[in-house]
Design brief:
The chain is of the alpha/beta class and about 625 residues long. It has 19 helices and 23 strands. About 30% of the residues lie in helices and about 20% in strands. Helix 5 runs antiparallel to helix 6. The protein starts with a helix and ends in an 11-residue tail after the last strand.
Length: about 625
């Protein structure tokens, strides 16, 4: 909507009078100018909505009544506020009396201007090389806002970060609940190949599958292309479905664009001919409290809620109970035409747009607190004005608008005007170039995107993207998307306690100074790559045997000081010694003098670290 309005203004007043070259336009608007125009348009809408939202909240305080809900007074942090599913969750939580804090990764966020939003903040970027900083930022928000429940609605990348956050913060924030699993389980569910193994162990029907780590495996018979239709999927990312999911019919070869490696593997599965669905569940400690289903087909931009089939619900219910899952999980499955059997193909360990098809259920926000609301389920159809697949554009359907509400009118202005403009500016869509006159793999039952309706005009403006998806605030641009760096998260999951210590130290440069009183700190830091981080460790010990038994690690400079730890700490302060990181017990930290922590340094209570992993 906003993109179309801006395009019309530019066309009629700036561009159209000056050029048409052989019926094909050329780029005349520099990217730098277009960025300025998009920024001005997006933020004008944003700040106007923020001002109106401020007035709404003032009015709400004047007329607010005490809620009788048993969840009144609970403060819930909800992530990725730009998405429609997040807005539905925010409204549901407000309905049951919660105070709702919304986070996102940019200032512009649809849920932030909802009347159901009580506070809004911007989270640190999702950088796999800075997981610890991200978790620290989240912890600061949790403490500042006095959060009771962290509810990740999650992008495709955020789920693994949230798993690490639960592992690292559960000990230091015992009063806070996380509606997700720890990193080890989140990574298993998110990784298509590992999830397939879990299904086999749990008797959940899945198609034949395998992992491909080289191009040779696609050509040497390792994949049964001769025996069946096969679908191959990039394990680390499937954001750009057109480039990262390929169907290979029986007897044919995989496209040359598919180039798996050991660090970027792909999964193959027998391709099931039938109808694809997605089933979404809210569960608390293995008990399902809410659920819904919809037909899934490529990039969908409409959501028609239907019940989860009984056989699917029974099988996945057993799976959820076996692993005592808490959080939100969406399972994609096919109903095979030839046999009528269902086959689960993958799991998305996060919230799903499926919930938009059941979010009309009264009081469903209580499901996040363990209350089973399934008997009250109401199904609905949802679309978007931006995509012209709901009333009044799509005749014959009873789809409501996904963002619109008479009682909450501002989010739609952000979701369908401001954020699309901002996406064009910041998500690599202004690189220019020729656009296809017959684009493929467009979303199902959605109006043609501007690039398909007016390709010459978009080339003139420098737009280079496939389509916009306002439902989850996504833009598809040409090329492969970035992976999720599974290796980073696998290392964290192996030993969350040691990983947390290493991450804290790495934040302080190549030669950080460490003060500790536990040998395990030295063992943990020994795993750091010495070429990038070589810590100097001072360890306190009150037993002479510790010096005799101390193990020396290559690349670790450690000195052990014998004596009373409390007295030694005071002596170090008297000598004006300071350290970048202190790993000490809570009891010792109570007696740390000023100046012992270097400027910009930090202290870590050993009791706040994740527990030691038990041997399996």
């Amino acid at each position: 909507m906003g993109v179309a309005i801006l395009a019309q203004v530019l066309t009629h007043h700036l561009i159209w009078p000056y050029f048409i070259v052989r019926r094909k336009m050329i780029r005349l608007v520099p990217a730098s100018l277009m960025k300025v125009l998009l920024y001005a348009s997006a933020y004008t809408v944003w700040y106007c909505c923020r001002a109106v939202h401020f007035l709404f909240k003032l009015t709400e305080r004047l007329f607010a009544r005490n809620s009788k809900s048993k969840y009144a007074g609970k403060t819930v942090l909800v992530t990725t506020g730009r998405q429609a599913k997040t807005l539905h969750g925010v409204r549901a939580l407000k309905e049951v009396g919660c105070r709702v804090v919304v986070t996102d990764y940019q200032e512009i966020s649809a849920s932030a201007v909802s009347t159901a939003c009580d506070a809004h903040t911007v989270l640190a970027p999702l950088d796999p090389s800075k997981v610890s900083q991200w978790v620290d930022h989240l912890e600061n928000i949790i403490r500042k806002e006095k959060i009771d429940l962290v509810l990740p609605m999650s992008t495709i990348n955020e789920a693994l970060f949230m798993g690490a956050a639960k592992d690292w913060l559960s000990e230091s924030l015992p009063h806070v609940s996380f509606a997700c699993e720890g990193l080890e389980m989140m990574a298993r569910l998110d990784n298509k190949a590992l999830f397939a193994e879990m299904c086999r162990e749990s008797a959940v029907p899945i198609p034949e599958d395998g992992v491909i780590t080289s191009r040779n495996q696609l050509d040497d018979g390792s994949v049964p292309f001769k025996d069946m239709d096969v679908i191959i999927k990039r394990i680390e990312s499937t954001v750009n479905r057109d480039e990262e999911i390929k169907i290979v019919l029986q007897g044919r070869k995989a496209p040359e664009t598919v180039q798996p490696t050991t660090s970027d593997p792909w999964q193959w599965q027998r391709f099931i001919r039938g109808t694809e669905f997605s089933a979404w569940f809210v569960c608390v400690e293995g008990q399902i409290t809410f659920q819904g289903c919809y037909r899934s087909e490529g990039d969908l931009l409409f959501f028609d809620g239907i019940p989860v089939p009984e056989d699917v619900a029974a099988s996945l219910g057993s799976f959820i109970a076996r692993y005592r899952l808490s959080g939100q999980y969406a399972f994609d499955f096919f109903r095979e035409d030839s046999t009528g059997k269902f086959f689960v193909i993958e799991c998305n360990p996060r919230a799903s747009s499926v919930l938009e098809g059941v979010s009309g259920t009264p009081g469903w926000g209580a499901s996040f607190f363990g209350e089973d609301v399934r008997p009250a389920t109401r199904y609905q159809q949802v679309g978007f004005w931006f995509h012209r697949n709901c009333w009044p554009f799509a005749r014959g359907y009873r789809r409501s608008e996904g963002f619109w509400s008479w009682c909450d009118p501002l989010p739609i202005l952000i979701a369908e005007i401001a954020w699309p403009l901002e996406m064009l500016r910041i998500k690599g869509a202004l690189r220019g170039g020729e656009l296809s006159r017959a684009p493929k793999s467009l979303p199902v039952e959605a109006g043609l995107p501007l690039t398909a309706q007016c390709p010459s005009l978009c080339e003139a403006l420098g737009f280079s993207y496939h389509h916009l998806d306002v439902n989850i605030g996504k833009i598809i641009v040409p090329g492969r998307t970035a992976g999720r760096d599974y290796a980073v998260f696998e290392d964290i999951a192996k030993d969350p306690r040691a990983a947390r210590m290493c991450a804290k130290v790495q934040q302080h440069g190549a030669a950080p100074t460490i003060l500790c009183a536990h040998e395990e700190v030295t063992h943990a830091l020994a795993s750091l790559p010495t070429e990038t981080c070589k810590p100097s460790i001072t360890r306190l010990a009150d037993d002479p045997m510790e010096i005799m038994k101390a193990k020396r690690f290559e690349g670790i400079d450690e000195s052990i000081i014998l004596g009373s730890p409390r007295a030694t700490i005071q002596n170090l302060a008297n000598q004006r010694r300071s350290f970048d990181v202190l790993f000490l017990s809570k009891q010792l930290l109570e007696h740390v003098p000023q100046g012992l922590v270097a400027p910009g340094g930090c202290v870590v209570e050993m009791e706040s670290l994740p527990p030691v992993l038990k041997c399996k």
